Hints:
Elements: E1 8-16, H1 23-26, H2 39-45, H3 48-51, E2 80-83, H4 95-103, E3 107-110, H5 115-123, E4 127-130, H6 133-145, E5 150-154, E6 159-162, E7 168-170, H7 175-182, H8 187-193, H9 195-203
Parallel strand pairs: 1-2, 2-3, 3-4
Antiparallel strand pairs: 1-5, 5-6, 6-7
Amino acid sequence: MAKQKFDIIQSTCIPIAIDNNNTDNIIPARYLAFTTRDPKFYGDAFMHDLRYDAEGKPVADFVMNQPEFSEAPSKGIHEIIVGGQNWGSGSSREHAAWAIAGYGVRVVISSSFADIHRNNLLNCFVLPVIVSREFQLELFDTIAKNPQAEVKVDVPNQTVTNLATGKSEHFDINSYKKYCLMNALDDIDFLLENQDKIEAWEKK
């Protein structure tokens, strides 16, 4: 998936207010048989069986097909998902994280995540942000009133702010993963960056 440095992300949001939105919803199991790593392929499969009916026609009342949320994420537009509680429950398939990243989402905000899915998101350069239930519901309410409302995620300071209300919360992130996100490094990149230190330690 695309490696982008994380600093401050300010964007409109896609509200997917589904509690226990499991990985089979995020990407149906039939897509696990494919060997491609094309981001667009998996991005097109994101929430597929809720976005489309059995004939492949868009489901009009599903949030991602509504005009104000149907445009795929781009810089500053819909790069953030506000999800329901227990986002990413179910099987541990990393394809679910591939689908979210492939769609163009950079941040998922929820009051809780399934642990394995949360780690998979981080490995795919998608930031999972855990907020209080009250803040989560406030975000849903704000977006319902104004789909153009923006949220600011400040990774260096680990804060998320509802710009419509000014309310802000701190979020936790592992310091190693924070460093990797802010420098667009995956685990291999990090090791290569520290190759000299590793070799010096081995010589000791």
